[in-house]
Structure formats: C-alpha cells, structure tokens
Fold this sequence. Notes:
The structure holds 2 protein chains of 2 kinds. Chain A is of the alpha/beta class. Chain A is built from 6 helices and 11 strands. Chain B is globular and about 65 Å long.
Amino acid sequence: MKIMVTVKRVLDYNVKVRVKADRSDVDLANVKMALNPFCEIAVEEAVRLREAGVATEVIVVSIGPKAVQEQIRTALALGADRGIHIETQSSPESLSVAKLLAKVVADEQPGLVILGKQAIDSDNNQTGQMLAALTGLSQGTFASEVKIEGDEALVTREVDGGLQTLGLKLPAIVTTDLRLNEPRYASLPNIMKAKKKPLEVKTPADLGVELRAHTELLSVEPPAERKGGIKVGSVAELVEKLKNEAKVI
Amino acid sequence: MSEAVNAAERESMEFDVVIVGAGPAGLSAAIRLMQQAQDAERELSVCVVEKGSEVGAHILSGAVIEPRALAELFPDWKERGAPLTTAVTEDQIYLLGDATSARRIPNALVPKTMHNQGNYVASLGNLCRWLAEQAEALGVEVFPGFAASEVLYHADGELKGSVKGIATGDMGIGHDGLPKDSYMPGMELHAKVTLFTEGCRGHLGKQLIEKFALDKDADPQHYGLGIKELWDIDPAKHQPGLVLHGSGWPLVGKGQEGTSGGFFLYHADNNQVVVGLIVDLNYSNPWLSPFDEFQRMKHHPLFAQYLEGGKRVSYGARAITKGGFNSLPKMTMPGALLLGCDAGTLNFSKIKGTHTAMKSGIVAAESVFAALDEHDSAGQDITAFTDAFKASWLYDELYRSRNFGPALHKFGTLMGGAFNFVDQNLCGGKIPVTLHDTRADYAQLTPAAQNQKIDYPKPDGKLSFDKLSSVFLSNANHEEDQPSHLQLKDASIPIGTNLPAWAEPAQRFCPAGVYEVVEEASGPRFQINAQNCVHCKTCDIKDPSQNITWVTPEGGGGPTYPNM
C-alpha cells in the first residue's frame, strides 16, 4: 500500500507574526519558514506505518513556489520515499489545493492519504474534507490514533466528552491532530540521503487543473495592543473603576 | 547518560573539512574551499554545522559592512544579488554630553577608520543566508539545527591529541538528563581539518584556546556587549544610508567611572533603522545594566527624533570580541584552525568584524586547501596559515589598529580619541608604541558597596521597554524539557559569593532576563531561566567568579532573528 502525505510551507511557529506596514499581508521577508507542524505529524505517522510493514511507500506532495521543495526535502529526511512538487506562483487556496491533490490521488492510487488537519498560517481546516468530497473517499478527521486492520482504517478522534473511533474502508483520507504522535528529529545522514531521493516537479496544467481565486484578501490587521494595567489604592477604588471605567459590574 | 554509552551509540561521518558555525567566517571558508576544488577539479567534502534553527537565526550585527572580502570571494557579488543594497550616504559622529545634549564631531577630526564611504548598511543575518545559498550551490553540506557540542581528539597513534572533528549534541534528552522517546544520539563528524568559526566566545573555541594554550603570548581578550533593535519608522524621517555613531552619555557621569562604549543608529532600507549600544565589558560598577543603559539612551533627542512614532520590530544581543591584534591567540593547532570572532579578528577601530572574519576564512581556506593537496592527511598543524595571514591585508589592518581599544581604555574617550586621531590619521596606525590592556574583563568589577547604585527610569512602552517584552521579539525558544545549557561550576557561588560582593551582577549584565535572584522565605535563591537565552555569551565572559559556563543547548534552540 502506498501512503500519500501532503505538506505545507508555513511561517515557523517560533516566529512572531508581523503585519506589513501597508496592511496588505503578513510580512514574510527573510522570516524563517518551516514545515507545518500538523503536516510533520502526518509524515511521521506515514513513516511509522511503513516501518511497521503496513505500507510500502510514502509519497510527499507539496504545492507552491520552488521554495516548498525545502519542506519536501525535510519530509524526505524524516523518512518519506519520494516527493512531488506542484509548482505554482503563490500558495493557492484550499479548494484549488484539494483539486490538485485529487488529481495526484487519481494518478498515484494511494491506499491512504494523510493530511495535517490545518495549516498554522491560514488556519482553514478544510483541505482534507474537500479532498474527501472530490475523491469520494471516506474521511477521518482530527485523528489521535490510526490503526490499519485488513482493508479498514480505525481512526480515533478526539470529540467533545471523549473519544470516537471510526472504521473507514480503504482507500481513505485522514487528517492529523496534535496528539497523534511526536515527530522524530531528522538525522544528519538522513538529511544527506534526502537530497538524493526522487522529486518530481509538475504544474497545475500537467494535472489539467485551472487555478481560480474564490476569495480575495482585503487587509490584515494585527491584534489590538494590550494596554498597561494600573494599581488601585483601595477596594472602593477598584469597585468604582470596574463600575464606571470597565463597566463590567 | 554516561559518556561511554553516548560514544558507543554514536555514528560517525567522514569529511575533508568540517566547519563549526555558519557565520561570515565559516561560510567564506567553505565557499573558498569549494571554489579551489572546482578549479583544481578535485573532489572535496565540506560540511558546515550551525546551532541556529536556520542559517542567520543566531546572527546579530550592526551592521555597516565593508565589501572588500566579499568582492574577493565573488567579484560579481552585485550581479549575484548579495543583500548589500543600501550604500552609506553620510557619516555623523556625536559625543553626547547628557540626556539632552549632543555635539557633532566634524568629520575632519574623526579617526579615518570610522569613515564609511563605499560601505553598506545591511543585515548580516541576511548576508549569511545568501552566503549559505552560494555555498550549497557549490556543493557544501550546510546543516542548520545541529549544534557542535564537543571537540573530538585522536586518542592514539601518530595523531594522538590532534583534533579529529566534532560531535553534535544529543537530541531528546530530558531535564533530568535521561533520554526521552524522541532521543537521537549525536553524530561524530570526523575531518582532516576542522575550522572553528563559532563567533565571539565560542564554547568549543574557549576549550581549544585552553587545551593548546593558544593565548599564551597574547594579552587577555576583551569584549563588548552589543544590544540592538530593529525599528519601522515614519517614512518622512527615513534617510537610507545615513549612519550615526558616537559615545558619551549614558555611559558617563556618576557611577560610570570606568565605563566605556558607543552607540550606533543606521538607516537601512524599507523605512527601517537599526539602533544599538555597545557596552565594553571591562566596566567596574556591578550595578550597571547594559540593557537599561540602552533603553534610556533611546530617549535622547538624537535617537528619539527618528524613533518617535515608529514601531520596534526585533530585539537581540551578542557579545563582541574586541581585543584586536594584541589579544589575538595563535589560530592554528594540530587538525584545526580558530577563525573570525572565535579567535578575535574584529577591527575595533572600524567597529567592524564582518570583512575581517570573512578574510580570515578565505585565507584559511587557501592554506587548508594547499595543505590537503600536498599531504592528504588528517591532524596537520597548518602553520602555513600563520605566514599567509601575516602577508594579508587583514594582518596589516589589525596591526595598524592595535592601539585603538587600549588607548580608549587607558586614556578615556576624549584623550584616547585624540590619541587615536593622531595614530590613525597622521601616522596611519604606525606609531611605534604598542599599548597593552592586561586585565581580563571579568576581573574589573569592584565591590557593590563601593559603587554608586544606578537608578534607571521605568520604560515608557513607546521608546523604551522591559526585558521580557524585548526577549519576546528575539523569537527565542528552547525545547523546555532539556538540561540547562547554562552550567554553574559551583552552585553555591551566586548566592554565597556573588550576591554579597557584587549584588550578583548576572541579573543585570544578562540582556535577556535569564538570571534572577528570587527572594523567598528561606532566603535568596538563584534562578536560571535558560529558555530566555539569546546566546550572547555575556555571562560566560563577565561573571566575576567565572562560574558560569555556556554550553550548547539542543540544536535549533535560541533566538530566531529575522533581518538582524
């Protein structure tokens, strides 16, 4: 069985996000970029399934400008076998991503597709679900445990008030939650080996997909700055301020 | 984890040259090595390890950069798109009298070395990112996120005692010292030659200097602490290429006898300015706080005129090796070389270390390549480097500047400055005397009780800020569950010795709020917040008891500086 994993290049989670002075977008100039943490968990899960003998090959797919190859190489260093880069000018929106991935699914026929539940930059949480709809495959989202038994995937999901386990007929689509696993560190020899693993570059035209924009980014605003606190002299003053200034009592 | 278990589990890899630290010196050496290998059509394997999570993440410099060494490496650096785009348009030098007054020094009276025509205002982090791309394109293996934590030596045979390479740190060790689920043992990287280019006060460089007594003929090394911020300012006030330097207030007046340093404010591109203060670490008053000096400095009208209405984008700090020629250790040893700020090639009279660090890397690469070409063997002491270094413009530059720092330390800013004007402008640095500054910086502190306490103003949140909100902007991050990388030789010294004698100065000299003395019912307790550390190394340098040892944390930890 082949497993297909998708990865996205995003702002590193340690970096403080800054909005451009003209409010047109987030400032990404010379800022550290990294593999989306949920995607990293997806790669780790796929590699573990291959190491357990459940899968035979792990394919990583990423979409975006040439720089995303860096994240594909990271995934290859973590243990994936080969990469597919679908080259686009910018990072397309979720529906376009799902359409492109649906074509790759049709070409590669994976037994399992694992995606991060969301990317930490746009926080959309929709690509996995859209891909399931477009391919007609069953889906298990927010997985905290994945087991393959025969031609079925048992996916445990964290839901309000407990855990829910779904049995999905393979091929299936799974999106990862934070508790699914703790990704390994890439070792130096594996980083070197990753440079030699196959990486195929395709365009949306190769896949017969025309990218369309369904949304437009109007402006980006940073969160309101927190005002400094004050010290009050007495309980009476505190009550007075809560009543008349904060207007909460 | 015992050492024995580690060593048994560790895998090893072989390279011709291993370089520790992806800064200007290390990357220049890597590039020059590969360029020569290509010209000679010779196979050469070169690997660079870098403790930052990406190249540039731990790089912090002013910076006004002199492109001389870059042009030697890549004569077509402009066409290749090197990120030196803002040429210096105007130099202004000031002496600040107090919190409001400033006197501009006419350019004719400024030491020549402080003139910046032909230089560029740039981010050294971005230059290193660019150099790493060039190096990788030439076939260098660059590994960010891997900290060289240990020097390896040949244990026996002919090469016994010579440097064999380095080991990267173990990953996934918990705070209790035991391996976690994610444990991955470090790797041994063996090389015929290892180049140490860790920057100022490299923790392996420090061990090598001691082991091979590299500094036995040199004066003690001297250091400064540079604190820097990057600001977005009002476009109407922005003058790309304008460069301000100076000294005086706030490092003058009562309680500041024996303090020196200087400030900078550079107008870069994109409506940004960088502003910073360098405090020489030979100051004597333990109540001094370089961080607070810098914060209050920004309220001076000279800075406030540009910063008011602007927004602070980033913050960071890094120690500077500034002893220069007289403090320069021997740079070669069997199997290894010590280069750039790890050795101390910064030219203090220009307040620049980038071009000199790069040049030291280039000269080393040429000597190393010739040595490997001749005898393809490990463990050589490549002393040919010393001759090549002496024949280079780098040596000449450092020699001419040898009195600059000692003159300021000995005679103070005014008289020392006058000496430097005569020496640099009238005599070209060739005055036939050499001034020495023979007391180590850590030994300069005088008891807290004999010193004036300094009362710093509270930050206003507009021009000045507290330490924690500053560290937040350095994007510093360390895996929380790991042993502290700031080690005390004797855990009783901070409270037992340093507190009564010097009011534990670590609380104040650390620009990242790592060290705190917490008052508890049972008495004062010394607390180390290692996750705040921005890897500036000041604690390793200035602790009066020399009790703090900075070691590498898990690879990838530390600040994540953008555009610094």
